[in-house]
Fold these 2 entries.
Entry 1:
Amino acid sequence: MDLNKFTIKQAQEKLEAGEITSVDLTRACLERIGAIDDRIKACLTVCENEAICAAKEADLRRKNGEIGALLGIPYLAKDNIMTRGVRTTASSKILENYIAPYDATIIKKLKSAGAVLLGKTNLDEFAHGASTENSAFGPSHNPWDLSRVPGGSSGGSAAAVAADMCLFALGTDTGGSIRCPASFCGISGCKPTYGLASRFGLIAMTSSTDVPGPLTKTVEDAEIVLRVIAGVDGNDATTVDAHRDRSRPVHAADVQTTMTGKKIGIPKEYFGEGLEAGVKKLVMEAVEYYKKQGAEIIDVSLPHSKYGVGVYYIITPSELSSNLARHDGIRYGFSDNSGNDLLSIYKNSRGKGFGPEAKRRIMLGTYALSAGYFDAYYLKAQRVRTIIKNELDQVLEKVDCIITPTSPHVAFKIGEQSNDPLKMYLEDVYVTGASLAGLPAMSIPVGFDNGLPVGMQLIGKRFAEDTLFAMGRAYQDGTDFHKRRAEIL
Amino acid sequence: MELSKEQIQHIATLARLELTDEELEKYGGQLSAVLGYIEQLQEVDTDGIEPTAQVTGLENSWREDVVRVWDDGERLSAINLAPEVDDGQVKVRRVL
């Protein structure tokens, strides 16, 4: 078996047994990237030399007796995550030549765990999108059908994992950006509870919903990565010490995966109009699987879900228009100083540096926050957000998790809807709820519709990632959709 | 919700974005469509509902107000990212 095809768990066992080295694994991934990434275009930067050096160091640490779940495991990181000394662009022209001067906290944690950074992956510019088509450096391609999008915004990360270019990848999720591409590419993706993992060193988008998380080949692997990157960080005041009572190093195998007594909520609003029949069928088959394993299936209702996209597209542009104000052509990034005054440096640098979607969102946010409109838009959206959050919390008091499709359809064709921003926003219809409420959610593959992967979303109680992992593992223990790989033509 | 070209130009100025005529036209239509969709929020009764900005119940996360030394290499590489640097300082146009 090619080493790059291993899951983290498999590689870990081989490394521990001394059958392979991290250098072997890292070379296999780099070779895979070299062989197919001209077609997938998942990577924006590959740091070959640094990766081999890090792999050698990991091998040395292991030789000296160290063990660790991610020691020597090669991974890719979404290019909106700061990596010291490595170009970090957020897929924007405005940061095309930006070299990150420090590491994000989650990158630091992975470094000290001995994981090996292979490079950086493509995304929609500043994570604004659901297809990677908004990247200033061109779209990534779905390994299952190169004419289709991999989803977004963490599309490069998802495509890379699905095509075995790495053992896992990091993404960020603000309103579906891990779950959507995981679904379109047929892999597992976990958006943790808001505040579980540090946002320090993520290029900020929507500060009140941004979270980093893993994209992996199995649910078991997602759990391994999340345990390393989670935790309180003095540099992110919103991180929560949620797992302090469970600080024991839980090995995935310890987690109970029995479904007897588990209650699963099925919200009717997520299975209605707009959902493709093929997707609905596969998600309901997965629900049936849980039922056979002893879970109780309960019909629930989330009547305000339909306002999720509307709320999200007020809150997100408002927060990101403030966050992107720092790109001013003065301190770093692209600068056009052809004008004679300060204002023209701002306007020209930003006008030429940002792509169309970033500009649209900045303007939408600026408008929503401007004098006279704040109450009608931002404040109203925050109030509806409260209703959406309470509604989800109330349902989750009665059930262990909620199951929905991740996306209403399979991956669409590149270019098919890139001229209609509103249509693209509606892509997020099933994923915004968990983001607005800060709940953990995961997408796992549940089958194929006309040869394209379909994802199921599991939404859990705040900080109850363990439940989601147990449920995801129970499903993957009895199915093999997560093991299928695309033949890349 | 139709935004006029003047309104779009005003928003772009507030947002510090230099836009071409073509862009003003295009974004005007697109933003109007999005705002039209968002109008649906007005039908939700939010009387007496508090706004949510924070979802995990944290309040006032304090830390000591202390000076932390930043690694010199990182600090210098951060400053050197600026388009114009003079003697370890970022150079800007006059603001007064």
Note: The first helix of chain B runs from residue 5 to 14.
Entry 2:
Amino acid sequence: MELSSRETWTVIHGLVLGTVFLLAFGGGLAGLWSLRPGFLTAAGIKERMRRLYVGTWVMGVTALLTVITGTWIVYPWYRVKLAAVGDSAFAGCAGLVVPGATCSPRDFLLSDVSGHTETWHEFGMEWKEHISWAAPILAITAAFLVTYYGPRLISRKWLRMAVIVMFVAAFAAAVVGGAFGAFLNKVAPII
Amino acid sequence: MTTMKHRDEGIAPELAALGLPDKPDGPGAAAMIAAGVGVFTLGLLTTLAEFWTGLSGFLADFQGSRGVGGLAGKSTLAIVAWLVCWGVLALLWRGKDFDLKLAFRIGLVLGALGALLTFPPFFTLFA
């Protein structure tokens, strides 16, 4: 069993960091949701808040690491132009069923040599690469608000809901990135 | 700028045992608005780069030799706008109160606009 350097980075970017992000989101959302008056003792609040601080910051930092590795390490392999020969932009993709040495994943999708795949890039990748950067901004902001207000979130329902909205919006942005990343890596894997 | 006195212990008596000092809302408001500014900057640059070739080239200059293209500039400038805005507002509103609901609404509108501007069916209208 072996993974190439590129496969290793796609695993780190999508699977490892993505899994940590998902776990931190689940724990963080459950913690925030149940942070209500009358639910916890003072000792319980202290214990709950420690977990919430760790969970929200782990989510924020993981989101940041995910977009940094995705943009600066994995994405260049996806978008490099390899297929152009003379006037033909995608000659290197002719006859291929997966991207290869003469046809990057982006080339492959845009060439439509394996069915109608252009929209995977034009819609899927274009949306994913941009909206994913909203995830760390929103997740780190939510983590800051949780840390700054701490147990006061229990008594301020409106503020707690505002933090939850940011937290869920960060997750939604990451879902767009993660889901399209998984599909794109299925249709046009980085090899 | 408003002045508020929070009554957390009145709503959640269990907080009294923790002896929490009251905190001003200025830093929280700064974080909310800055997040909206960051996402809006990301969306604005994404849409502008579709039809403004000069900007598109400028954004691509951020990639160095990495082959990231314009995304390098869009993401870098969005993060810079977010952090600078956060830093400036946090400094201005340190120790002060600000209407948090207003700050959240401003951040929400900016964030929603930013998200729309990163949506391909929308930004390709300008291509």
Note: The helical segments of chain A are 5-33, 42-79, 105-111, 118-131, 134-149, 157-187.
